[in-house]
Amino acid sequence: MQVTAESAQYYEQCRPLVHALRQTIQRLEATFGSVTGCIRVPAAVSFGSGILTNAWESFLHEYPEVQIELKLSNEVEV
Fold this sequence. Notes:
It is a single chain. The chain contains 2 helices and 2 strands. By secondary structure, the chain is of the alpha+beta class. Strands 1-2 form a two-stranded parallel ribbon. Helix 2 links the parallel strand 1 (about 35-45) and strand 2 (about 65-70). The chain is rod-shaped.
């Protein structure tokens, strides 16, 4: 089986496109697996500074690109 001139031309023109598509997919896959952003958490002073402390440390160790904005207050928000 021989490659036709048209097939060879088609292959040569598509090769850079396929390469660029593969690179784009690799970059996207790398970012899909990452967790980033800010989590805002309102909590009672005793709950946020006591029980949740170990959980925050563990979570932030697992997801270092996440920021936690903790608002500690004993006031009830409506």
